[in-house]
């Protein structure tokens, strides 16, 4: 697209007007947007890099509106050609001394808008942007942000970059970024809470899985926290937004999307439930888009973080190890005395791990801890053999091995437990035997899809139980705790009298998870972020999932269904190939047209595929993501890629032949010496930990 002087002037004018509007809003909202005295508990807190991405995103959003109003949608490709020209000019200018020539005021403003993301990254030093992805470091080492994983397009999959779109676009009321609020019939869409009440309430009738244990749930969450972190919008000053009043979109911020509560609601006696929109990180003119704040790859962001700063906060910088807290006589992650989400009383601090959501509920901490312990155990083994290796060398080698082990556990044990065998084969998700994987594809965008993050991989919320059981090694009860009263409370991890977190881990292995279906437990539907003793002070996670889908512009369920190859639907009855009659009737009772069905709800009401714990649409969206995450990762543990220090065949066989989650757990818990032979089946026979194979560290010391 040719950029003319005139088109450049028009686009620059629009950017200047957008900056001006934002400045005015900032002044007029100064008393509203950031005025909340209330502490806002939110698992999705934006970091500094995300906040500056929001600034760029919002200038572009506003400038897009200005342009489209005047010139219509056809202007967008032209405007993007202009912005690309500016970006190139910026890159050139970066190489030169900028002070040498006088930079006009307008250009400076434009630059500030364009560069704000990168500038803040550099100034905080949390992320580095190397000049050369082909150098030695990027041949041997996976960066913490994911940068340079793809050498042709170094930012692909990087932390703080935009989500991928399975259908290539997004679905908004105005085609740009406004939330869908109307049915195709013109009526108002049912509120997310109404849908949750009508279709997703288990009415305390808990149905458990017949074979899958609660550990499968928590490992799913650990995977989610590795791959997905969609940050919430903040006020201009960087503070959290208080989006709890129904008119907050007008009085507080356009980034509020509160959920209307029906009048007769059983639990919430408030008119609206708070929800802050995912922050807009659009990098071009056009449609609003969201970012992943963690590295998009399956690379243990939960353990190591997604920026240099996060990585530094978990390392001990001695002997290649990670920091721990051991005052109670057992290992925990280091305490975080500044966690603004943490609700437990000051003695019971929440923790610092690679991912900020580690203390979202107490059962995540056992999983974080076994990974930290395994890292430190392997570091000791390496050091005992190689006294000459530095902290950095040991750290990076162990990190590489542990990520390989983790990827193997996910593809070899976790996915087959709920995806059909045929899907695993068709999408190439099954680990190989005694062969290297030659399918790395630099054309594959490894980024997380909005559909996976916003809907499909949230299926796991249905697996969560009301009660977390605690058991000793022999399987005897050690006292339960309720999820709903422990969201962002860390105290359960401080019970040294019963052996800390180990009984929680035993409990998860030895008890059933909930069946994956359309029903969710009371705590998930009513008590997310609830402050103890204040009923209704939290939110409904199912409503949030549905509203989040609308917020991030997911298309209605029907569109994905067709994309996946299921029969076209025009009436509710057409759903009968993949829905029970009961579920069709249920959908009809809240939606006025099948075209309105939200992706999350549609997916959760589909009948499961044979041999699977999910319906066909969710299976596709999950499998599609894990394929992208495999063939789009230059460092995938089975891959051999030119000019990259991947594992050699012997090393990857060591992982494939020996690593199991069962052994991993056994090795890092003091209280057990037997464990379930099928680690995700609570009924499977127990075997001696010592009978399970163990990797030989010498294999990795070439
Ligand atoms: C007790 C268990 C769990 C709790 C309390 C929980 C809680 C939450 C909360 C509060 C959010 C933020 C929602 C939003 O603002 O949009 C969230 C997001 C999410 N959850 Fe869970 N979750 C649990 C288990 C799981 C499991 C088992 C999985 C997957 C198998 C999962 C996958 C996800 C995903 C993919 C997201 C989106 C993350 C993001 O947008 O950054 N969660 N969860
Ligand atoms: Ca990651």
TrEMBL record:
One of its GO terms (biological process) is response to oxidative stress. Residues 42-53 have a biased composition (Polar residues). Heme b binds at residue 461. SUPFAM superfamilies: Heme-dependent peroxidases. The keyword Isomerase does not apply. Residues 27-53, 92-128 are annotated as: Disordered. Its main location: secreted. Residues 106-120 have a biased composition (Basic residues). It is found in: Secreted. InterPro entries: Haem_peroxidase_animal, Haem_peroxidase_sf, Haem_peroxidase_sf_animal. GO terms for cellular component: extracellular region. Keywords: Glycoprotein, Heme, Iron, Metal-binding, Oxidoreductase, Peroxidase, Secreted, Signal. This is Peroxidase. It comes from Caenorhabditis japonica. The lineage of its organism: Eukaryota, Metazoa, Ecdysozoa, Nematoda, Chromadorea.
